[in-house]
Write a structure and sequence with these properties.
The complex is a heterodimer of chains A (about 200) and B (about 375). With about 200 residues, chain A is an alpha/beta fold. Chain A has helices at about 5-15, 35-45, 135-140, 155-165, 170-180, 185-200; strands at about 20-30, 50-55, 65-75, 90, 110-115, 130-135, 200. Chain A has one domain: Pyruvate-ferredoxin Oxidoreductase, domain 3 (3-Layer(aba) Sandwich), CATH 3.40.920.10. Helix content of chain A is about 30%, strand content about 20%. In chain A, helix 3 packs antiparallel against helix 6, helix 4 packs parallel to helix 6 (about 185-200) and helix 5 packs antiparallel against helix 6 (about 185-200). In chain B, about 40% of the residues lie in helices and about 20% in strands. Chain B has helices spanning about 5-15, 30-45, 55-70, 80-85, 85-95, 120-125, 140-155, 180-185, 210-240, 265-280, 300-305, 325-335, 355-370; strands spanning about 1-5, 20-25, 50-55, 75-80, 100-105, 130-135, 160-165, 170-175, 250, 260-265, 285-290, 290-295, 310-315, 345, 380. The interface of A and B includes residues 6, 13, 37 and 41 of A.
Chain lengths: ~200, ~375
């Protein structure tokens, strides 16, 4: 018997879990997409949501495209398969748009939050989606997180996510960053707060 | 205290709470973060255990055997080829009746090389004399580590806790970490009746001819049989202490079910979602989750399936030349009852192939539409 190859049926099937929110984070190995997914899950858990987060199950190499996922729901999450139709995306590196099909399966009207120094209008091809940009690289470097060539943006980007989607409160994000990050706690908190304030959207 | 933990860290917290004395282990994907976390807990002084970094899984199990024989609560973790390399010593540990507990992160066997989940690694060790417990959530993983020490130390057989690679090992979700004080009262210090002791020398694992060997094997089988009731009791006590229980099998929404799907591991979890949806539509479909695979809970399986009109077993494994391994066991359990319900066998999810709700719905749909299984094996979503 044959099954499992029809992505259309997936979206119909998954629409029954209408209250569940799924998020995909795109990054490169070493940028901290998985850490960002875990921090986001912990922040949402603080707000008494049910959460599940996991990395893409590929063998990760530094610099290679990678992804991480978060599921959020008001009731316990039993679904244990990969995420095919995310509600929103976080993109830690805009050069990934030319390498991977970043918006694959993204639901219409979903947010794409991009770490970029460009304006949202500079990404005009995403007509079905809403775009927000924030220069998390510069903000991370300013707060001494990583280097100019390899800034660490996994904590910073979460401030922008909180502001744009409203799915998680900034207080929960900052509290989790403070608790979970072993070094440069203050710098990480400041970077997340700054992206919260500086993120640009198409709705500006 | 509730915390968002990945499955591998849930294992490590279970080991911490069980106050394990010796950990002897070797890293392998996707198990490595279990040993990393345990190493971290030891280095911080939170876990007062001797962590032995060995040069292979064969040595890891040898280290466990030595420590356990000396009367210490002992743990290891591995995966896939690592478990296969332990094979000889798995027999040794069980035959010596040592209550070692291991977490095996289910990962496919190579070649071709594959780091993703299926159950062929642990099911290849079916006949070694180890008990096997398949888990579906990180909470169940943590709780089962604690329960497994209690069961093993009562029946003197080693336990293997199985968690699906990545779908549990690297997936984070909220986990309740029980209080140490409560765990201490639930799982008291391990005090073996016999141990390696220079002040009271005994012979261990000596040459034993057929005058004794046969009876010792009888005793092992007897211990396995006993383990079913003991595991049920240990689980009931866990419920009264911690408010959670799992059963050695679990019937999920099986009332008046025409069709019962039989599952294990994380496929059980996703199947619940599908069953809920189909029950809402009025379809009489239930699920039997098999948690304990060795000893195989024959009586429980018989009772759970006796009123079903059809059974669909989903196997994330294959015995080449026969079929799904859980399917064989289920058929074998039903045979002598004379109740020959059609048992459909499905192979799904090998090497980490995703088992989505749609795959499970297709399996259920196929089973509903056919009176008899026809083929002994049905491959799901085969691309050739």
């Amino acid at each position: 018997m044959r099954a499992g190859n029809n992505t259309l049926t997936f979206s119909i099937l998954f629409s029954i879990f209408s209250e569940m929110i799924e998020i995909r984070i795109h990054g490169r190995g070493g940028q901290g997409a998985f850490t960002a997914s875990n921090l986001l899950a912990s922040a949402l858990f603080k707000e008494e949501k049910h959460v599940q987060s996991f990395p893409s199950f590929n063998a990760e190499r530094r610099g290679a495209p990678t992804a991480a996922f978060i599921r959020i729901d008001d009731s316990i999450i039993r679904l244990r398969c990969e995420v095919y139709t995310p509600d929103h995306l976080i993109v830690l590196d805009p050069t990934l748009f030319t390498i991977v099909d970043v918006t694959h399966g993204l639901k219409d009207g979903g947010w794409i939050i991009i770490n970029s120094d460009k304006r949202p209008d500079d990404f005009p091809s995403f007509t079905k989606f809403k775009v927000a940009t924030v220069d998390a690289n510069s903000i991370a470097v300013k707060h001494h997180l990583g280097s100019h060539t390899a800034p660490i943006v996994n904590t910073a980007i979460l401030g922008a996510f909180s502001k744009i989607t409203g799915i998680v409160g900034i207080d929960a994000v900052l509290a989790v960053v403070e608790e979970s990050i072993p070094l440069k706690k203050g710098e990480n908190v400041a970077a997340a707060r700054e992206t919260y304030e500086k993120v640009n959207t198409t709705e500006d | 205290m509730k915390k968002v933990l990945m499955g591998n860290h849930a294992v490590a917290y279970g080991v911490l709470l069980a106050r394990v004395g010796v950990i002897s282990a070797y890293p392998i994907t996707p198990q490595t973060t279990i040993v990393e976390k345990l190493s971290d807990l030891c280095a911080r002084g939170e876990l007062n255990a001797k962590l032995i970094d060995v040069e292979s899984e064969h040595s890891a199990m040898a280290g466990c055997i030595g420590a356990s024989a000396a009367g210490v609560r002992t743990f290891t973790a591995t995966s896939s080829q690592g478990l296969a390399l332990m094979h000889e010593l798995l027999h040794w540990a069980a035959g010596a009746r040592l209550p070692i507990v291991m977490a095996n992160v289910n990962r496919a066997m190579g070649p071709p090389w594959n780091i993703w989940t299926d159950q062929n690694d642990s099911l290849s060790q079916r006949d070694t004399g180890w008990m096997q417990f398949y888990c579906e959530s990180n909470q169940e993983v943590l709780d089962t580590v604690i329960q497994a020490f209690k069961i093993s130390e009562k029946v003197l057989l080693p336990s293997m806790i199985l968690l699906d690679g990545f779908f549990l090992s690297h997936t984070s979700e909220p986990v309740d970490i029980p209080d140490q004080e409560k765990v201490d009262s639930y799982l008291p210090e391990y005090k073996p009746k016999y141990k390696l002791d220079v002040k009271f020398p005994l012979s261990f694992g000596n040459l034993t001819d057929e005058n004794y060997y046969y009876e010792l094997r009888y005793k092992m089988q007897e211990a396995m049989e006993k383990a079913k009731n003991i595991a049920t009791e240990v689980d009931a006590e866990f419920l009264s202490t911690f408010g959670r229980s799992y059963g050695i099998v679990e019937s999920y929404r099986c009332d008046n079910a025409d069709l019962i799907t039989v599952t294990s591991g994380t496929i059980s979890s996703t199947t619940r979602v599908v069953i809920d949806k189909l029950r809402d539509k009025g379809k009489k479909i239930g699920m039997l989750k098999i948690k304990m695979f060795r000893p195989f809970p024959v009586e429980d399986v018989r009772m759970a399936l006796e009123n079903a009109k059809k059974v669909a077993v989903i196997d994330r494994n294959i015995s080449f030349g026969n079929g799904g391994i859980f399917c064989q066991e289920v058929k074998s359990a039903m045979y002598n009852t004379g109740n020959h319900i059609p048992v459909f066998g499905y192979i799904a999810g090998l090497g980490g192939r995703d088992v989505t709700p749609m795959v499970i719905e297709d399996i259920i749909d196929f089973t509903m539409r056919h009176d008899r299984p026809g083929d002994d094996i049905h491959w799901v979503g085969l691309k050739i």
